[in-house]
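We were asked to recover a plausible sequence for a given structure. The inputs and outputs are reproduced exactly as logged, with field labels preserved.

PROBLEM: sequence recovery
POSITIONS: 342
GIVEN STRUCTURE:
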């Protein structure tokens, strides 16, 4: 059996309930997963997974070059020779549809609403209601197999990443200290909360229950957090960690505050209290799984538009005040983390 969900990182993390459901129903089955190579660490340690098959998207993006075309053909041929009985396309896009079709599996399951003609690759097309949460939409793909969905989103760390963070905290002088993770960056302006509000929030958190704040983000996003620098209690790791290391940072946190991005879904996977800031995207569909109270959004349903639209600025995000975020943090502060009430 094969899961096809190459990207993005947050989507890979929230596909884990599909894996958990398959393993619970089929304890003896071989269950593999095609995942983009840079996100492999997100699922590599999961005990329900037999093998993560890396998909080198950046390399294959130059498929028209003869050497790359030959490599892609070999990769697809190796996938086909695994002779999967069932493939679930949990992404529902053209690329994942092609991967699904390339397996040659006799049964290929995907969403009927798949885009970019991906649905052509499926033998079973599952109806998905328009407003369904992304995780529930993927769990719906289990229906043709008569497998009961399990809402188990737990993630697991590779030991080397866990050890790295233990040593890093010791070397930086805050081993054993409670810290919060802030993920303030976003690729699209429409998802960015004003940095001056992050600065005000950081001051509030450091003046209260937290001794350290750790900033995380993707490579190339360091400029977005530069205004937060200057306080030795703020540890800036933006662009400086691998996926697995970022997971370790989040796994040890007492709180995670982020825009609509992967750290929120990783926080859910490690059962960390979290608060997500949403503007153009709807948390009812893409928010933290089974945590409707963890998301803040101050726009009318359907009122913000597509987050990639060039016409959108950060207006929707500016409707979220610092007080809104502090209030929501207080609301999730009844959670017990490692035996301690936040």
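RECOVERED SEQUENCE:
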């Amino acid at each position: 059996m094969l899961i096809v969900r190459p990207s993005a990182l947050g989507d890979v993390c929230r596909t884990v309930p599909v894996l958990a459901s398959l393993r619970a129903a089929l304890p003896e089955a071989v269950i593999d997963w095609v995942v983009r190579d840079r996100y492999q660490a997100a699922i590599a340690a999961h005990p329900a997974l037999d093998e993560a098959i890396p998909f080198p998207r950046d390399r294959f993006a130059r498929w028209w070059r003869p050497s790359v075309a030959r490599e892609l053909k070999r990769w697809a041929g190796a996938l086909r020779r695994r002779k999967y009985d069932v493939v679930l396309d949990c992404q529902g896009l053209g690329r994942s549809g092609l991967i699904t079709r390339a397996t040659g599996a006799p049964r290929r399951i995907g969403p009927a609403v798949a885009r970019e003609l991906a649905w052509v690759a499926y033998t079973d097309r599952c109806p998905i209601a328009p407003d369904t949460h992304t995780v529930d939409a993927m769990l719906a793909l289990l229906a043709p197999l008569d497998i009961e969905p399990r809402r188990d989103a737990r993630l697991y760390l590779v030991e080397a990443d866990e050890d790295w963070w233990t040593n890093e905290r010791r070397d930086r002088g805050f081993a054993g200290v409670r810290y919060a993770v802030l993920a303030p960056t976003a690729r699209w302006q429409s998802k960015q909360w004003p940095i001056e509000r992050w600065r005000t929030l950081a001051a509030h958190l450091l003046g209260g229950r937290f001794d350290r704040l750790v900033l995380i983000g993707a490579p190339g996003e360091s400029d977005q957090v530069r205004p937060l620098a200057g306080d030795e209690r703020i540890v800036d790791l933006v662009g400086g960690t691998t996926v697995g290391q970022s997971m370790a940072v989040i796994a040890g946190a007492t709180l995670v505050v982020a825009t609509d991005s992967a750290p929120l879904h990783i926080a859910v996977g490690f059962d960390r209290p979290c608060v997500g800031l949403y503007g153009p995207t709807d948390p009812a569909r893409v928010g933290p799984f089974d945590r409707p109270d963890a998301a803040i959004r101050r726009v009318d349903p359907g009122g913000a538009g597509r987050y990639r639209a060039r016409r959108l600025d950060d207006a929707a995000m500016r409707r979220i005040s610092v007080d809104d975020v502090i209030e929501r943090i207080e609301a999730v502060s009844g959670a017990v983390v490692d035996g301690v009430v936040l």
